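Is iron/sulfur cluster placement plausible here? Inputs below.
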Amino acid sequence: MVKVSRVEENSVASELGVLPGTELLTVNGRPVSDFLDWEFLTADEELVIEARQPDGEEIIYELERLDGEPLGISLVPPAVRRCANRCEFCFIEGLPAGLRKPLYIRDDDYRLSFAYGNFATLSNVKERDIERILEYRLSPLYVSVHATNHEARKVLLNNPRVPDIKAQLGRLAEGGIRFHCQMVIVPGLNDAQVLEESLTDLWNMGDAVLSAAVVPVGLTQFSHLYTARSMDRETASTILNKVEDWGDKAKTERGETWVFGSDELYMLAGRELPGPAHYGDFAQIENGVGAVTSLRMRVAAGLDRVKRREGDRIGVVTGLAMAPLMEPLLDQLGQRSGAQFELIVAENSLFGPTITTAGLLVGRDILRALSNRTDLDYALIPAETINEDRVFLDDCTLDAVREALPMPIFPSYDFIDVLESETPVAAV
Ligand code: SF4
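Reply from A.M.:
I modeled the complex. Tokens:
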């Protein structure tokens, strides 16, 4: 059963009299257990929907949809499937206590992998789930492989009952499912031979594996489960050599890079990031693969749109990792706009100094970085630091931070989004 959260005005559903709170039980005789069933079963043109109205009365809606006309129904978000693993490197295990509850949910849900590109390990899928993936053709899926070697994967996921990922991917691939894979690398566990074996196995799956990303383990000062080595420059460099060798092979044999080191891996190894051609269609940008190159591209493409703002003093808050990469971008923006940009590097007070990503800065960090800066006309902060409710990870709201600061601040994804207006506007 799924429940209706909202019915659009003047929609097919509103004409039928569907109300928020209505429970949708079956479609054309098949039970509806979640949003996937609903999406796929209602793709038919002729629908018989059994439902229970909010007052408990059962009703049958019969309708014919013309040309895929939307029904106008939003559903109550699904209960997320929880993760059955206990990875030592789990970022959620490395969160400090006292944050809002949803941040501690360890989801591992193939449905969200298909719908939103969340990575899932497939550790908790049952036979019925595999059948659904195949029937509904849930492709591509984003899969946290980490290692194809079964024994190594059990250790990495800290789960002795984890299914054999090679067998799972193989079966799904036979049914036409495609994958974007990631491997979080834990030095000493899956960086050397295990990584080579994993890349070989994924490569041998042919076009079923659309891309593979290699990401260094990211630890906070609270990663209490972690017992392995942390990633150092030499290890990152060795891993990157392997990734680039495979990438060269892929380009020669398949015409595309196929396997990518994450931006963080390049930064840890102290290497220059590749240009746009390396990343193709940037399939794993949400996974931090090519995000810096994409930012550079967007700034280059948008420079002409930046308005003159002669003499403005603009602060740009970022994390330590991005600081060296930002300087050249701010030089270009300064030349184009006539403004004076100042890079302000903030330390992460919530996760500790090992977390240097700009997008994980919290409200307190922004306050600390800017509260005495009465000399600035305004400041830009990374838009990724706030959620859709404009709240930082530490529960500070953007409004509260704004009120406490002596200058206006504007969340920005790529500078251009704020600076292309005559007067700066927030990107979110
Ligand atoms: S799979 Fe591992 S990293 Fe992902 S949520 Fe579960 S325990 Fe955390």
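Short version: The mean pLDDT is 94.
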